[in-house]
UniProtKB/TrEMBL annotation:
Protein name, entry field: Aminomethyltransferase, mitochondrial
Ranges of residues in domain Aminomethyltransferase C-terminal: 259-324
Start and end residues of each GCVT N-terminal domain: 1-158, 174-235
Native organism: Ranitomeya imitator (mimic poison frog)
Subunit structure: The glycine cleavage system is composed of four proteins: P, T, L and H.
Record-stated family: Belongs to the GcvT family.
SUPFAM superfamilies (UniProt xref): Aminomethyltransferase beta-barrel domain, Folate-binding domain
Length: 341
């Protein structure tokens, strides 16, 4: 993942010139999922912006978009010449830890009370002896979780967020300095409860939760409204229309778009990316963008885009899954078809 610190008193004005979220309203040590948008209303990337301290923002975006995102921020920095803002790349790796025993595994390596973390809030602490790590209660698997940031040379004391109720099972992403990632992974694997897993596990979990994968479900041709991500746009930002692409995106909120992202479940062979979505009369009305079997639900899960009149939950649809033997059409019923995302 690309991890960047943004310093300076104009750091909020800078990031809000790039994203749709209301970053100014974030409390100390609070974060939010947001979107980088272009002037055409498309999504350059999805990312998490953390108000990490009084002196910087901590931004985590997709590794696959690292070069593009870095160039985009650097280019915008030219518009802020003479203002107090600076970018600092962070050399850290990410480990993801998930499952019902995660909290117990993490507690063994932390001296701080994890119950003090509310969703998207963070602390600075040591993780299994690695000092100065930033731990944020978040994740992108659909599970409750935390993200642990690598040592921060500017702050080595703990900053706790508001108290939360209890600490449920977590699925953290752990961000650590690149040269200590293997050390931390080996320490975590000392627990009998921890096993290595591939990205397929992450993919099924995020699909079950209806979470987008950049490059599959959202890209620079997709607007936040089409992607059912209007909730990422701050109310103040909507009113001000001061983010990239606002003149296109804001009217779409109360208007009409050509397509809407939906969730699907089905049985039989799983629908994969580019599988056509048909109405009951056999007309193609959309396309699957992600799909896989769901080990938890024991059905197939998918998401894709359909014409807006077919986006109502419970709408009956077909998926045109083609078998390998001769490419025969296998029309599946999507059950119960469209889900709310």
């Amino acid at each position: 993942m690309l991890q960047t610190r943004i310093h300076g008193k104009d750091r909020i004005a800078f990031i809000e010139s790039l994203v749709v979220g209301d970053i100014a309203e974030l409390k100390p040590n609070q974060g939010s999922l947001s979107l980088l948008t272009n002037d055409d209303g498309g999504i350059i990337d999805d990312l998490i912006v953390n108000n990490a301290s009084d002196s910087f923002l901590y931004v985590v975006s997709n590794a696959g978009c690292a070069e593009k995102d870095s160039a985009h921020m650097q280019n915008k920095l030219q518009d802020f010449r003479g203002r107090d803002v600076a970018l600092e790349p962070v050399d850290c790796a990410l480990l993801a830890l998930q499952g019902p025993s995660t909290a117990d595994v993490l507690r063994a390596g932390l001296s701080d009370d994890l119950s003090r973390l509310t969703f998207m809030s963070g602390i600075t602490t040591a993780v299994f002896g690695i000092a100065g790590c930033r731990v944020t209660r978040c994740g992108y698997t659909g599970e409750d979780g935390v993200e642990v940031g690598g040592p921060d040379p500017q702050q080595h004391h703990v900053r706790s967020a508001a108290c939360g109720p209890s600490w449920p099972p977590v699925s953290p992403q752990i961000s650590v300095p690149g040269d200590r990632a293997v050390e931390l992974a080996e320490r975590l694997l000392q627990s009998a409860e921890v096993k290595l897993a591939g990205l397929a596990a992450r993919d099924s979990l995020r699909l079950e939760a209806g979470l987008c994968l950049y490059g599959n479900d959202i890209d620079e041709t997709t607007s936040p409204v089409e992607a059912s991500l209007v909730w990422t746009i701050g109310k103040r930002r909507r009113a001000a229309m001061d983010f990239p692409g606002a003149s296109i995106i804001v009217p779409q909120i109360k208007g009409r778009v050509a397509r809407k992202r939906v969730g699907l479940t089905s049985t039989g062979p799983p629908a994969r990316q580019h599988t056509p979505i048909l109405n009951l009369e056999g007309r193609v009305i959309g396309e699957v963008t992600s799909g896989c079997p769901s080990p938890s639900l024991r059905v197939n899960v998918a998401m894709g885009y359909v014409e807006p009149e077919f986006a109502k939950p419970g709408t009956a649809l077909h998926l045109d899954v083609r078998k390998k033997n001769g490419g025969r059409r296998n029309l599946q019923n999507a059950i119960p078809a469209v889900q709310i995302l």
